[in-house]
Amino acid sequence: MRTITSLQQVRLRQLRQGIYLTLGVFDGMHRGHQALIRRVIQEARKHNGLSVVFTFQNHPLEILAPPYCPPRLLTSVRKLEILRKLGVDIVIMIPFTRHFARLAAREFVADILVRRCRVAKVFCGADVRFGYEGKGDVELLRSMGREYEFSVDSMVPVRYRGMVVSSTKIRELLQEGMVDRAARLLTRPYDLIGRVKRGKRVGKTLGYPTANLYVDEDVIVPAVGVYAVIGEYGKKQYGGMANIGYQPTFARDKLEIEIHLFDFCGELIGKRLRVFFLKRLRDEKRFATPAKLQDQLRKDERTSRAIYEKYLRCSE
Q: Are 78 and 215 in contact (CB under 8 A)?
């Protein structure tokens, strides 16, 4: 997969193959996004062309309306990982800037899609908006397609079990702790990646040493509670459990993400760790004594191990 990271590098007109392109923020790379992108890939292969995804490194609202910019569902690196697995040929992933925001919709189509990319076909969601003040839409694409000889395929929102798949809905589910339902819309468990920092080592005294995860402030963190998780370090994965919360038994007042990995031996401080959230087990609660907390952790471990084993069986 070829990745283009600046507008100046976009020069696909030099390629002989037809360009089949989709454009969007693709925040989440959820079931709906994947269906659209697979459609692009299928059409490109059918006509011996190249599949292209045009997207951004940041959310446009970060520039256009910062107070309304939603927390991220995935990083740019993670987005590229998913696009690579889907089989996309070329990804144009540029920063959304104030300069780009001022680009008129017709200019975007004429200069970027036609002159620089020479698109044969554009794929998009039915509600796509682009160009200055969001004046570009499907009708403008179709009109300019007739003018510049490219076709347009728009797709209605994907539904899953009667629910419209959207990044907004996924955020709502994560904020309610329903990570298993969010995973169905994402087609994968929601994950966080961050660096392990030094903690208070309280978990170690209870027999459950934890890795305290530091993540970027602009990513969404699931609701406070205890979760069954998978931890990925290096190329290995481990079942585990996580606590997102304030450690009420020990009167802490700062939100922490603590991960205990089953059957792991080693030092993680300063290392990067990815955590996949499988299921929320319970609320975070205050225990009368550390011993009672320890009893609950043993129950959580049994439940988490069972969930992890079931996940492995279903993934085979």
A: no
Is there a shared CATH topology between the 2-156 domain and the 185-315 domain? no
What is the per-residue pLDDT across 65-121, written as a single tens digit (0 to 9) for each? Answer: 999 999 999 999 999 999 999 999 999 999 999 999 999 999 999 999 999 999 999
What pTM was estimated for this model as a whole?
0.91
DSSP H helical segments within 200-260, as ranges? Answer: 202-205
Distance, CA of 168 to CA of 165 (rounded, Å): 9
β-strands 119-125, 151-155: how paired? parallel
- Residue 180 has a pLDDT of 97
How many Å apart are CA 194 and CA 216, to the nearest integer? 7
Residues 6+ apart with CB under 8 A from 167: 27, 28, 30, 70, 73
What CATH fold (topology level) applies to the domain 2-156?
A: Rossmann fold (3.40.50)
